[in-house]
Design brief:
By secondary structure, the chain is an alpha/beta fold. The chain folds into two domains: 44 residues, no CATH class; 361 residues, 3-Layer(aba) Sandwich (Alkaline Phosphatase, subunit A). The chain is built from 15 helices and twelve strands. The longest helix has 25 residues.
Length: 491
Amino acid sequence: MNFINPQKHTRRTFLRRAGQLAFTGAALPTALNLAAMGEAAAFDATDYKALVCVFLFGGNDYANTVVNYDLDSYGRYNTIRGGRPDLSGGGIAIPRADLAATLLDPTTPLADGRQYALHPMMPGLANLFNTGRAAVQLNVGPLVVPLTRQQYNSPNRVLYPRPPKLFSHNDQQSVWQTSGAEGTTKGWGGHIGDLARPGNGSNNVLTCVSVAGNTVFLSGEQALSYQVSSGGAVRINGLNGNVYNSAAVRAAMLQLALQDRSHRLEKEYNLVTARAFSTEGAVSNALSQFPATDAPFNSFPAQNGLADQLRLVARLIAARDTLGTKRQVFFVSMGGFDLHDVLINNQATLMGRLSSALTAFHAATVSLGVADKVTAFTASDFGRTLQSNGDGSDHGWGSHHLIVGGAVRGRAFYGKAPPVSVTNSTTDAFDQWHVGQGRLLPSTSVDQYAGTLATWFGVQGNEMNGILPNLGNFNSGDYPRDMGFMVNPQA
């Protein structure tokens, strides 16, 4: 807990801790208990909201995801990526003609005639963008403080700190999810869950749900990452079926696992087991009532694991009233993005799966009547180099990401469109956003990106300081606290 940093002593945090003392038997004034109840109710109100983090493990190549299309920018991109002079692709450049079908048409055109298209295998997401249901956040990545390229190159790491262990997979996955290097134990999704848990009543264990295994992103002070598979809740086999074909053995196992104990450690172990057993039953029963949510996913080919994960998320959202949940944070993922080789072929497959899965998921939220209550967003270890290594691209930093949902201020780009360059000259006025080989120096921090999502979700004011420790460094001018891509929840 944050007992030292005074910025993290928010009203809600204080009341939550006061509530914890009351739970252990400490007496508190009635007025304080009523205030705590009111504070919890303010978060969940009477509506439902969900955030869905789609993590692309390995570091997605940004330049072939959101692709430069205007002739000047595409020409630079094509040259740097080893394409042919006639713009027909080659190297790791996508042919310009292939991008026409996924050209993005923002409501407000970008400056200087800049244009982007999505990867040719992403027509579904391009359509969501062009119909106002998706947006692109340009050049976002981990930052501690705003940095120019000159500041990045400065030896003064106290005045101009860098994120820890840049270009390292494990560390940058952790920095995206927790603001700290590998080994950090709590993520910003989990901290949001800490605030949301009281509004989910007895089923607060379902506040943070991962369909992609264990993740630090959903770990908070009290919030836990409840793990499910794409097939549903994970069963405790010994408690759900006959053991050694014997109902008597199963009954004995149930008694041993669920009975109250006097020994502290035994008692806690059985409480955890009982919670897992009862939650599995509640989830399984709820999901059995909502199989029809699968409809948008029915035409999917095999081997789209992301679609399977998002199908399960959609069914859990459909069961929200049955489960008694008002606020949820989900985590799903894809792997395979560390494409030092065979970039053109392998990323095409991945982009096709990402686009079709997210498009079907949004369609499911529309059919459920909650499209404006559910926001999905992408994240990844890092972007990659614009410069080709021959058949792929290497580890980078900043990247472009997608936000999808009915509450997204869609058909728009947010942040700064970076120049297409590989320069690392501190005197080049044209390019201040690259740090060698076309690695993007982020012009938007992960904290700004996350803070915009958290504000829409219901996090208020100074509560952000306990969730996103660096957000206070990004609050004015070219680094706004809110990037503006979500509808204001107070509007």
